Amino acid sequence: MAKTNRRDVLRYGAAGAVTAATAVVAGQELASADPPPGLDGVTSQVPGLKDTLDGLKAPLDPRDFDEIFKGKKIRGLHGLRGRNELMINNRRLALTEIETLFVPADGSPPYVGTGWISALNHYDPVEVDTRRNREGLRKLARKVVDVLGDSELAPSAAQEHGH
């Protein structure tokens, strides 16, 4: 049987605790946009854990936005869980990507591209963010606010639909 001393128990126990805490907190960070509750108490007790956890947080997409437009809070998140999300006054709006023909207002030739539609802009797609158009999700959010006027999104606006 291997001889175990107190130093080895403390060393490997601390390493195991840091690894386990990192895995738990990283899992919570990936599963939720909100920080896990009580994290400050854990990170202050384990040296170096706060720096490790800060490095695990995914950077925000530079196209993400959270702003007020015409009195409504609009928030767009790019690529969250593999999909883009749009919220109007904290209510989710389901988005569908479709291939469609775009006719540029500047007179340049029409082209086929990928656009977003929702229940509110079903026949007026907004081009997805590309090199040509970096503000597609924001443009869609503003278009939805214009259509809504003083109304709010219904709960059914969050229901996915396909084409």
From TrEMBL:
GO terms for biological process: melanin biosynthetic process. GO terms for molecular function: copper ion binding. PROSITE patterns: TAT. InterPro entries: MelC1, TAT_signal. This is Tyrosinase co-factor MelC1. It comes from Actinoplanes philippinensis.
